[in-house]
């Protein structure tokens, strides 16, 4: 894989595992309850939306990338959840945890977690996010009028500060939960694996341990950039005010902001993309410092078993892409390639 394509490698921490994606494939590595590492690698499907070139233009491709990540994340979560619940991967009484198992698992018709369940969870999560990080800050900022704050710019600025506080506070609080802590450890493992690849080093456990758990193209950094861009744009943007009702005013302010979120996502995506290409620049690292520091909240130091999962998932997509480029007869299969 050419070095230029390393920037197209991304990942996501999931339930007891890691999802990795490359330009042509995506893989999911999951640590099953019995200790086995279950790995599945598939080609990326090009949807009708994905074939629209205009959606890949700068400042438009950010929204498409988010939708694409959400779709792959949905598939990965279903796969990971089903592995955790599948009877054949449970640790029975008197058994010890098994060794690494890189055998791809084909889709099953009797999946425990259905598409509707995962889809509903994602929709509920999205709605809760919009309420907590957009509507509620607007509603609370309007209450500042009771304290004599009348300047619209000041109220807008208070709104944006509240968004930052709510976001960081939410991340900190959920990080105290044991299951989320493990998720954040897998997040750290994902970063370490990708950093190993981008450093041009062999994808081994020893090399991966030495890498930082921070990464400039992380979704956490993206969220921080979104908050910064929102603060710059929304602080000085006129917003409606309904004198008769502060609730209606907060709803109106929320509805004005909502259509601009894709634009903000597009700008933030370009910033993160540029930062990934210029990660050796001290100036760029200084500008991205808030996002990198926030990753200390969303990542934890992983143990070796977690790093093995991330490395197996990363090897799978790298080798699958290499095999696709050199032809179908160049390898003995994705599972063997991933075993490295």
TrEMBL record:
<keyword id="KW-0472">Membrane</keyword>
<protein>
    <recommendedName>
        <fullName>DUF1385 domain-containing protein</fullName>
    </recommendedName>
</protein>
<dbReference type="InterPro" id="IPR010787">
    <property type="entry name" value="DUF1385"/>
</dbReference>
<feature type="transmembrane region" description="Helical">
    <location>
        <begin position="113"/>
        <end position="133"/>
    </location>
</feature>
<feature type="transmembrane region" description="Helical">
    <location>
        <begin position="219"/>
        <end position="238"/>
    </location>
</feature>
<feature type="transmembrane region" description="Helical">
    <location>
        <begin position="153"/>
        <end position="173"/>
    </location>
</feature>
<keyword id="KW-0812">Transmembrane</keyword>
<keyword id="KW-1133">Transmembrane helix</keyword>
<dbReference type="Pfam" id="PF07136">
    <property type="entry name" value="DUF1385"/>
</dbReference>
<feature type="transmembrane region" description="Helical">
    <location>
        <begin position="250"/>
        <end position="272"/>
    </location>
</feature>
């Amino acid at each position: 894989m050419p070095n230029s394509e390393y920037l197209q490698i991304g990942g996501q921490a999931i339930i007891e595992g890691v999802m990795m994606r490359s330009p042509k494939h995506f893989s999911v590595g999951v640590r099953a309850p019995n200790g086995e590492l279950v790995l599945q690698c598939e080609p990326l499907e090009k949807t009708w939306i994905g074939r629209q070139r205009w959606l890949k233009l700068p400042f438009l491709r950010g929204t498409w990338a988010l939708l694409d990540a959400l779709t792959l994340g949905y598939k990965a979560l279903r796969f990971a959840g089903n592995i955790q619940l599948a009877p054949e991967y449970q640790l029975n009484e008197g058994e010890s945890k098994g060794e690494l198992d890189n055998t791809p698992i084909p889709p099953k018709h009797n999946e425990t977690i259905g598409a509707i369940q995962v889809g509903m969870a994602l929709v509920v999560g999205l709605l809760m996010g919009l309420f907590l990080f957009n509507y509620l800050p607007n509603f609370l900022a309007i209450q500042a009028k009771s304290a004599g704050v009348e300047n619209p710019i000041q109220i807008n600025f208070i709104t944006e500060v509240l968004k930052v506080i709510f976001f960081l506070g939410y991340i900190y609080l959920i990080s105290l939960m044991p299951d989320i802590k493990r998720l954040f450890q897998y997040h750290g493992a994902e970063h370490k694996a990708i950093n190993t690849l981008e450093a041009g080093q062999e994808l081994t456990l020893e090399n991966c341990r030495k890498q930082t758990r921070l990464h400039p193209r992380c979704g956490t950094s993206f969220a921080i950039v979104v908050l910064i861009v929102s603060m710059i744009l929304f602080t000085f943007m006129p917003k409606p005010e309904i004198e008769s009702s502060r609730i209606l005013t907060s709803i109106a302010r929320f509805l004005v902001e909502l259509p601009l979120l894709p634009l903000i996502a597009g700008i933030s995506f370009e910033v993160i993309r540029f930062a990934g290409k210029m990660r050796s620049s001290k100036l760029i690292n200084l500008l991205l410092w808030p996002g990198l520091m926030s990753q200390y909240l969303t990542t934890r130091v992983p143990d070796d078993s977690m790093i093995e999962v991330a490395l197996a998932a990363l090897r799978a997509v790298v080798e699958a892409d290499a095999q696709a480029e050199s032809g179908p007869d160049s390898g003995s299969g994705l599972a063997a390639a991933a075993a490295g």
